[in-house]
Amino acid sequence: MSKPWIFICPSSRGIGHHLTRYLLLHTPSTVPILATTRASDKAATKYRLLRGLSPSPFSAHPPAPEPDLHALSERLHMAGDFDVTDERSIEAAYRQAATLFPPDTHHLHLAFALPGILHVEKTLAQVTYADALETYRVNALGPLMLMKWFADFMPRKMTDTSASSSTRSSSSSSSSSSSSSSSSSTPSSSTPGGSSSSTDSPREAAKSANVGGYGGGDMENLEAAAQAQRQKHPNQDQNQNQNQNQKRNQNQSQSQDRKADNNTNISSSSSGGGGGGGDSSLHYLPTQSIWVNMSARVGSVTDNRLGGWFSYRSSKAAVNSLTKSLDYALRMRGGDKAMAMAYHPGTVKTDLSRDFWGSIANDKLFTPEYAVEAMARVVLGAGLEQRGKVWDYNGEEVLP
Ligand SMILES: NC(=O)c1ccc[n+]([C@@H]2O[C@H](COP(=O)([O-])OP(=O)(O)OC[C@H]3O[C@@H](n4cnc5c(N)ncnc54)[C@H](OP(=O)(O)O)[C@@H]3O)[C@@H](O)[C@H]2O)c1
């Protein structure tokens, strides 16, 4: 049986940082993670990833036990000096991965290609060749080069991936105990697509606000808000978390339902809950291997109603195209054992969106912690019918 592992690039800041922390806590303890950083001092990045790790603030009751930091440290491998614009650094990490996880005994089960930069261009006159080129190098060529080297680790048709679908956290009791709380969410009682009202979801809220035609907080949503309301100050982080907690309970039903469908073999196999559970304690892996490219709703040509953001927007459109092509490649060699998808996280309170924090409604600006929980729910719950497409934090498709 081939052993699964997880790849996350990058892990130094923002969504990648929080996702790495989240997956350390919420995927099976037997599954190693390789995370990248541009820093030479990868130990420092690792320290920051492990520092203060504790169960998610969004976890349902009862609270999970404190994690075993030593075990998590053993599980977390770092690739330093890793720059997606430098193919040699990617190749070096590829070799590191091949040593850590020999392909004849291991396969890459979850891969997250997340690098991204934003140079804001409201008008064509603001476009500079250098910034546009850098944007394409990081946002589009970055994922492409990651795909070139690391998709090689994804399973082939002959790979015995049965270990992945039965992999659960062995350490934890923490997983079992916290997962068991998921039963209170009664995921199986909802219908796919969500039986709960979505009236209050960020997506619906944004729709009714009719800001740029975007769902629940996108970069373009930010841009429109920034133009209209530059004086506003962010002062409501606490409310924001509370709001997001409430919305989470409503939004999660859709992706959880999908997850319950796709992982019934897992969720039904253990009394620990987890699969299809309603809280964040997702101590399992999806049945099929999944490659995730980080997109953005502004990368949708269909949904482009404001223009602007020329380089960033088109770089994310390229990501969507690359994802489709990668999925065909994975399908050719892996059949149903591997798929690719692209993902839109909503507008997330990271350095990338910092200039707009003060101009966006709190319920449309996700904390990174909230964003990665939503991402995990959608990605870990993804089924093969979702392959090659772009999905948002509500588990809904973003048309290319
Ligand atoms: N935040 C949002 O609202 C939002 C919305 C839609 C989509 N996204 C997408 O989500 C992804 C993550 O963004 P974020 O919000 O987490 O941004 P962030 O906080 O600014 O983090 C960006 C990350 O990308 C890394 N990076 C930049 N250039 C790189 C390079 N050449 N090689 C390797 N890594 C590089 C940075 O590494 P260093 O720490 O070394 O600089 C950092 O870890 C991006 O693809 C972004 O487009 C974000």
Would you kindly provide a brief summary of this structure?
With 400 residues, the protein is of the alpha/beta class. The chain is built from 13 helices and eight strands. The protein is globular, with a radius of gyration of 20 Å.
Characterization of this structure:
Helix 13 (368-380) links the parallel strand 6 (338-344) and strand 7. Helix 5 (129-150) runs parallel beside helix 12. This protein is of the alpha/beta class and 400 residues long. 55% of the residues are buried. Strands 3-2-1-4-5-6-7-8 form an 8-stranded mixed sheet, with helices on both faces. The protein has 13 helices and 8 strands. Bound molecules: NADP nicotinamide-adenine-dinucleotide phosphate. NADP nicotinamide-adenine-dinucleotide phosphate (NAP) is lined by residues 10, 12-16, 38, 83-85, 114-117, 138, 219, 294, 296, 345, 347-348, 350-353.
Q: Fraction of residues in helices?
A: 40-55%
Radius of gyration: 20 Å
In this entry the ligands are: NADP nicotinamide-adenine-dinucleotide phosphate
Count of alpha and pi helical runs: 13
For the largest beta sheet, what order do the strands appear in spatially?
3-2-1-4-5-6-7-8
**Main beta sheet: strand number and arrangement?**
8 strands, mixed
Count of distinct strands? 8
Elements, N to C (H/E): EHEHHEHEHHHHHHHEHEHEE
Overall SS class: alpha/beta
Query: End-to-end span in angstroms?
Result: 37 Å
